[in-house]
Amino acid sequence: MVLPPYRQISQPAGQLPDYQRPGAPSLSEDLQAKFPYLPNWQRNFDFVLLMDAGGAPDLEHFLPGRLHLAQATDMTALFRITPP
Q1: Which terminus of the chain, N or C, has fewer Cβ atoms within 10 Å?
Q2: Chain centroid to CA 13: how far?
Q3: Residue 83 and residue 18: Cα distance in Å, rounded?
Q4: How many CB atoms lie within 10 A of CB 68?
Q5: Phi and psi dihedrals of 20, rounded to 5?
Q6: With helix as H, strand as E and coil as C, how does 15-84 read?
Q7: What pLDDT digit, counting tens, does each position of 16-65 carry?
Q8: How many domains does the chain contain in total?
Q9: Where in the sequence is the domain holding 57, given as residue range(s)?
Q10: pTM of the prediction?
């Protein structure tokens, strides 16, 4: 069971969003409903874990000013979130 205050930004297990999505300036209502944790992600989380990171180009400069690469392998990359 997901308890408050995390219930508001949780979702049942499902498909992960496109890794470029958090950088989008605005999200459609459909995407907000599908991924309720994306709006205000910089305030709600401390880290982002990117799966299949080996296919992403230039992780050192991914969303500069918003994310700082902490560690990366071909499978995953862990980013520290810079608060807004």
Answers
A1: N
A2: 15
A3: 21
A4: 15
A5: -85, -10
A6: CCCCCCHHHCCCCCHHHHHHCCCCCCHHHHCCEEEEECHHHCCCHHHCCCCCEEEEEECCCEEEEEECCC
A7: 777 666 555 567 788 777 888 888 888 888 999 998 898 888 999 988 99
A8: 1
A9: 6-10+19-81
A10: 0.76
